[in-house]
Amino acid sequence: MKTNSPNVLFNHQTNLPFEKTSQVMKQKLLLLLMLVSFCSGVFAQQGLRASQDGTVVVTELNSLLASARTSGTARIASSGTSAVNIQRLNDLVTQVQSSTYFYQGVVKTYGDAPTNLYTDASSLGQVNNSITEKQNIEIVTILINTTSELNSVIDLAAFSNFPNLKYIYFISNINTTSNVISSHIGNYDSRFSIFYKVDKGDRNQ
User: Cys-Cys crosslink for 114: which of 32, 98, 149, 192, Cβ 3.0 to 4.6 Å?
Assistant: First the structure.
């Protein structure tokens, strides 16, 4: 009596488990690629603080906010103690906040418990002694008005006694780059995330 041996090449019962395994592997690979793509987008935003070789990272703010809006990212990873809260940062720079202004030795405060401090590069040496309401300040906006200010050392030790300060934001009237600003920062503190914008237009403070 003739016995039919199954054809291994065309045995669907034999191939079925392999096909299922292959499909599962494809799905896992797709998920892995999506995860890698997402993480690359996050970390491409420069880590935002100090790189591992000690270089101070200065990020262009408008590009960061636009990228966060596009990706729907609420927080950006950093190498410091915590992630940057994008929504909070955006509110601090775009919404009306209680603020202190310090220019030419004169302090003016508007509102209670100011969260924003506005000053210029030439006033940094006097900030620590002149500003008394330090405890709630979250962001310092520093105007750079001249080439000499841009090329001088920007000593962040001036903000060592601001317990809740998270963000340093430079607005330059002079064309500059993140590398130029980074190269002039002294006494960097890893709790600060540093941003900049070139703005030659008129601003009403």
Answer: 98
Instruction: With beta carbons less than 8 A apart as the criterion, state whether 147 and 180 touch.
Output: no
Could you please report the per-residue DSSP string of 6-73?
A: P-GGG-HHHHHHHHHHHHHHHHHHHHHHHHHHHHHHHHTT--SSB-TTSPBPEEEHHHHHHHHHHHT-
Phi/psi at 198 (5° precision): -90, 125
The residue assigned the tokens 């030659």 is 200
Give the DSSP letter of residue 123. Answer: G
Confidence grade of residue 6 (pLDDT, cut at 50, 70, 90): low
Measured in degrees and rounded to the nearest 5, phi and psi for residue 30 equal: -65, -45
> What confidence tens digit (pLDDT) does each residue in 38-58 have?
443 443 344 444 444 457 889
Quick check: pTM over 0.85?
no
* DSSP 3-state percent helix, strand, coil across the chain (nearest 5): 40, 20, 40
- Contact indicator for 112, 96 with CB cutoff of 8 Å: no
Residue 87 has pLDDT above 60, yes or no: yes
Which phi and psi angles does 44 have, rounded to 5°? -70, -15
